[in-house]
Amino acid sequence: MSAVQRLEAALARIASPDLEGKKAFTAVFTESARREAEAADRRETSGQSLGPLDGRIVSVKALYDVAGTVTTAGSAVLRGLPPAAKDAAVVQRLRAAGAVIIGKTQMTEYAFSALGTNPHDGTPGNPRDRQWVPGGSSSGAVVSVVDGMAEIAIGSDTGGSIRIPAALSGAVGFKPTRGRVPLDGSFSLSSSLDTLGPIASSVRDCALTDQVLSEEGSGALSAAPAESFKLTVAHGRLFDRCEPEILAAFEDALARLRKAGLRIADGSMDKALDDVAAIDKIGTFPSIELGATLVGLGVTSLDGIDPKTRVRIEAGANIKAVDYVRMVRLRDAAVRAFEASFESDEAFIVPTTPIRAPLLSAVESDAGFHEANGLVLRNPRVANMLDCPSVSLPLPINGLPAGLMLIGRRNADRKLLEIAAAIEAILQR
To answer: Are 66 and 222 in contact (CB under 8 A)?
Structure first.
């Protein structure tokens, strides 16, 4: 199908009353997307393609600047800001690669929770069952991909916000090493932890998108040969409180990987988790750094912010500067120590989240929300705190989706994607 045909199909799905387009998107760029699709088809016909993303239908999270639109980051408080004067750096790179930008997608307020709920603009239901949360904070992003409203979605990941919705809604999500993709023109939840990356239906599409966003690497992704890497199962606390169904599916996946000839060892990340816990005893980076972002935007009052978000911002406001500096230094040491412990051919493997998507009704109360939010964040945020690339793959399981997460060595992003491609191929057989 041509880019125009695929775009029109995506637009029809956004408009369909049977789907969640109105909740998944905060803005739809119908006319500009049609012009971009037509241009992509002309390039294809003339043999002047701009590359593998030329003509691909891409959505971008509502925390990215798109010229002429307000960057609300899922917040009613920011709706009065002036429209962005220019596109965010990643949007510029996508357009230069010929991507068709179909619209901006819904998210949790300020990207500061992992379930995907938003009391201001509405919450898109999980594509597999609308009664369940989609995962967040990139909620609209994952719904746009799984519901066929976009082929690729650009999200953000500060503590799991790409990988969690991918796991809970049945997609592939990739979080790069921090600094691999420029943050210019994106709303900052945490200047220490923010990363930008794709959600898609395959590792291949995530890798192609990463090439464009990072401007690193070229050519099609090759699956890593079985003998070129080993997987280490991070036994210990990352398996605590796992649903029995997830544990069973994870063990079944490991058995299939072993049968295919992959090297799988037993190990642990508990020492690194201790280092992270020492930081958490002082405070959390998003709670502190989001406050600074809001002040920079002229937000002088927390009125109008979702109480579930507000309480976390208020907690950060009470952290002293000396304690914040301690957190930075402890994290730097933790990152170095974990990097030094990695073998060159190693990737850790764990369930992305210990639970599958909870019911939307179950997270309406503060207690239910904070319990589920903490559980789904627990495993993914480790990669953010230790500054590692990480990818979530669909874990074969009956019923609601779950994810299998890989954590790679810092700055070994391409290698991790090659490993992920090898695992994906085995699990899809």
So the answer is: no
pLDDT tens-place string over residues 236-285: 999 999 999 999 999 999 999 999 999 999 999 999 999 999 999 999 99
Domains of the chain, start order: 1-429 (3.90.1300.10)
> Annotated active-site positions, please?
61, 137, 161
Beta-carbon contacts of 365 under 8 Å, excluding residues fewer than 6 positions away, are none
Q: What is the pLDDT of residues 191-241, one digit of tens each?
A: 999 999 999 999 999 999 999 999 997 788 999 999 999 999 999 999 999
Segment holding 65, helix H or strand E: none
Helix and strand numbers (H, E) in the chain are 15, 11
Q: Can you tell me the distance from the alpha carbon of 382 to that of 363, in angstroms, rounded to the nearest whole number?
A: 23
List of E strands, 40-151 = 57-61, 100-105
Q: Give the separation between CA 124 and CA 34, rounded to whole angstroms.
A: 25
Q: Which residues pair with 405 in a beta bridge?
A: 350, 392
Termini Cα distance of the chain? 26
Alpha helices in 60-185 (DSSP H): 89-96, 139-146, 163-169
Q: Are strands 152-157 and 195-200 parallel, antiparallel or unpaired?
A: antiparallel
Cα–Cα distance for residue pair 157/187, rounded to 1 Å: 12
